[in-house]
Amino acid sequence: GPRGPEGDGAMRMLLKVSVPVTKGNEAYQSGALTGTVQATMEALKPEAAYFGPDPETGRRTAMFVFDMEASWQLPVILEPLFENLDAAIHMAPVMNAEDLQRGFKAQAEA
């Protein structure tokens, strides 16, 4: 969500979710894929979400950019993806252009 000038303590994260083809097909046919994606969107309230084939593996892939408050959120976010989709997960902190400029300014002042 929006951050004040001093930030709100949340960290912007990139979550990449890749689903194996066979499990993805089963989940699509059963409705679990749609339901899990919708639940993930509701839980994360991402500032951006993208969907498509992974260019390296061809697997169904989703990428979400969202604010994470604390590490306790990991099981809430990730377990349904593991359990329902056998998903491979990659997470990393990321910055937007405003964050990057703020970091450069802080580094210059250090």
Summarize the structure.
With 110 residues, the protein is an alpha+beta fold.
Q: Strands across the major sheet, in which order? A: 2-3-1-4
State the share of residues found in helices, binned by percent. Answer: 40-55%
Bin the strand percentage.
25-35%
Query: What sequence of helices (H) and strands (E) makes up the elements?
Result: EHHEEHEH
Uncertain regions: pLDDT < 50 for 5+ in a row?
1-6
The SS-based structural class is alpha+beta
Shape: elongated
Mean pLDDT comes to 92
| Biggest sheet layout | 4 strands, antiparallel
Our Rg estimate from Cα atoms comes to 16 Å
Strand element count: 4
DSSP summary: helix tally: 4
Counting copies of identical and different chains, the oligomeric state is: single chain
Distance between the termini: 27 Å
